[in-house]
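Protocol step 4 of 6: structure prediction from sequence.
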Amino acid sequence: RGRPNEVPYRSDWNNLAPRFGLAYRLPGDWGQLRWAYGLHYGQIFPATFMQVRFNPPAIIAVSVHAPDLVNPLRGIDLQRLNGESRSTVYRLDPKLSTPYEHVYSFVWQRSFANDWKLELGYVGSRAHRLLTTWWLNRARPVPGIPLTTATIDQRRPDPRYYDVRWILNGSRGYYDAAKLTLEIPRRLGLSGSLSYWFSKALDIGANYTSTASGRDARNSRSPAEDDYQKAMKGLSDFDQPHAVQLRLLWETPRLPRANSWLARALAEWQLGWVALLKSGTPFTVYTGSDGPGWGNVDGVGNDNPILLDPSVLGRSIDHPDTSRQRLPRAAFAPIQPTDRSGNLGRNTFRKDGIANVNASLARRWAIRQDWSLVLRVESLNLLNHPQFDEPGFSLSAPNFGQITNTLNDGRTFQFTLELNL
């Protein structure tokens, strides 16, 4: 009921997005160089700006901390709720604009004797105005009011609201990656390639895909209300600095003067292997509670603890048998209600990496002039290697430091028989 909520900005239709590339053949046999640059724009997603529909007067969002489990709304007169009542509100920055990204790349390719090929590449990007949510109007220490969960709403600076969720262009993203590839020429039916990547991804709480809504908004909450960008700067959730890929393809030869059924059956099969090794992605350790004894009791989660043992920083927590030794609870301490935040940064540990081998076996038979039969057998995760999920990362939880799940499936096989007419 009442007037509809309004989106406080107009469409942005005048963005300039140049793109260009350049190729140059070097003298002699030094190969080729290629450069490219592009300016790319994203969008303000409907999920972002449509959050204003949750604001008064159409919707009143009541926040109750430490509720009575029998009557959670005790003390709130539902009959008196109206468009002027206290509520959690969403605010769109009037200067909210479209995120954009500078993308640039460089490639050098060179061929050597006997058809060996080497490629060195680089790609980088700088993304600006990424969408994020700042959780404002948090409870603060007030003389004379106990620092408990039940008093959070009494200690908010602006008593007209509960949370104020400010949606703005508050993050930036940085990505740099180099890749070295060696192409293996075909010899005795065998060919393939070997590649290595080194990369780094940073952001300020929200990455390229953030909509500043739902899970994106919750994950980008800062431990404290002030100095958001300093508190949230860290590795991106998808950061994986090292990766190695080996790809091989072998076709069994047709033996000369071999007319036996066994020789014909073993010829012209294609065997393929792809092996991938990759660093694990980062994760963050939280106190796990905003209540007294664990958090700063400001009404917003994502409190970070105090680091007591710096030697654990940067560790990969990658196996259930050793996870609790590598991420000991004794290395951290919870913060107190009077603390602004802890000293542990965001995304300072890594989960298990990828170590996977996929394989395939295929053969084609000509039945008649235009007909053929193709048999293909594929295996994903041929070695049945598990990729373990992150450990429990909430300091207040009983499973802290314990790995209880995997991220990948076990070994699978797929059989395909295809008739081409």
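Step 5 (inspection) to follow. The CA atoms of residues 25 and 32 lie 4 Å apart.
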